[in-house]
């Protein structure tokens, strides 16, 4: 009987170790958030983030990475796009609850909206996990850069083929053309989707890089090889973004 109890005790201990190891191994989760403001309120939103919100995020354990605005069109006057990260999904829930319940945040929110509501609608939020080939290069450059936030939607079941293509050489071909690979993610709740960020010196460099990439024979061969079993990408969304003055990464 003692041997049986010892066996159960050992089994329980092993299960606990496995559970703890799994918890420790939980991947850092990133959050892509987009805020749309009411007309004329974007500067109010910037001031709130610059003077208060980012610090309050850090207080709750969130990590600020990059804050952008679109470069042109209507969205340039009413949109803020940013990426923050959390230790894991559970930490994200805890951090947001702590932030929203924080008396300091409630005071800041009330004072910042004395002259009218800032946001036109609820923020859009996408939780993402980094791919195994993502550089996670959130270091700032000496000079502000232009960024592309690109979202690729694949045909059903073709995301692994897209990831393999990037893994096999597409990132290197981007670098060959002068692009900087910043980060690559798969959204937690959006199947068949890759979201990634690349940076360029400026608009002219961006155009030159993509022209060179499209005409590169090595890329053409890689594309042909990867699509032998059928089309991979069925939709591409692209945002051109510039960092705001308070963004940690520029």
TrEMBL record:
Pfam families from the UniProt entry: NIPSNAP (PF07978)
The keyword Signal belongs to this UniProt entry's keyword annotation: yes
Nucleus among keywords: no
Listed transmembrane segments: none
Keywords: Signal
Signal peptide: 1-25
Domain of life: Bacteria
Domain (NIPSNAP) ranges: 30-135, 147-248
Protein name as catalogued: NIPSNAP domain-containing protein
Species of provenance: Bremerella volcania
Phylogenetic placement of the source organism: Bacteria, Pseudomonadati, Planctomycetota, Planctomycetia, Pirellulales
């Amino acid at each position: 009987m003692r041997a049986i109890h010892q066996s159960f005790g050992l089994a329980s201990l092993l299960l606990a170790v496995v559970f703890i190891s799994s918890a420790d191994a939980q991947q850092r989760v990133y959050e892509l958030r987009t805020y749309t403001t009411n007309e004329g309120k974007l500067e109010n939103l910037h001031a709130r983030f610059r003077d208060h919100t980012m610090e309050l995020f850090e207080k709750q354990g969130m990590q600020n990475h990059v804050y952008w605005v679109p470069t042109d069109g209507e969205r340039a006057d009413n949109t803020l796009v940013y990426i923050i990260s959390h230790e894991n999904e559970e930490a994200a829930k805890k951090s947001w609850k702590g932030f929203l319940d924080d008396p300091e945040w409630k005071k800041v929110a009330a004072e910042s909206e004395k002259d009218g509501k800032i946001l036109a609608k609820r923020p859009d939020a996408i939780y993402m996990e980094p791919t195994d080939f993502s550089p996670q290069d959130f270091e700032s450059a000496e000079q502000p850069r232009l960024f592309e936030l690109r979202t690729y939607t694949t045909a059903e079941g073709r995301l692994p083929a897209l990831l393999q293509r990037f893994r096999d050489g597409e990132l290197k071909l981007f670098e060959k053309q002068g692009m900087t690979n910043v980060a690559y993610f798969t959204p937690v709740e959006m199947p068949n989707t890759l979201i990634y960020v690349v940076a360029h010196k400026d608009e002219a460099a961006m155009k030159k890089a993509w022209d060179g990439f499209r005409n590169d024979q090595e890329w053409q061969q890689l594309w042909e090889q990867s699509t032998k079993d059928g089309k991979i990408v069925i939709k591409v969304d692209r945002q051109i973004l510039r960092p705001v003055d308070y963004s940690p990464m520029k």
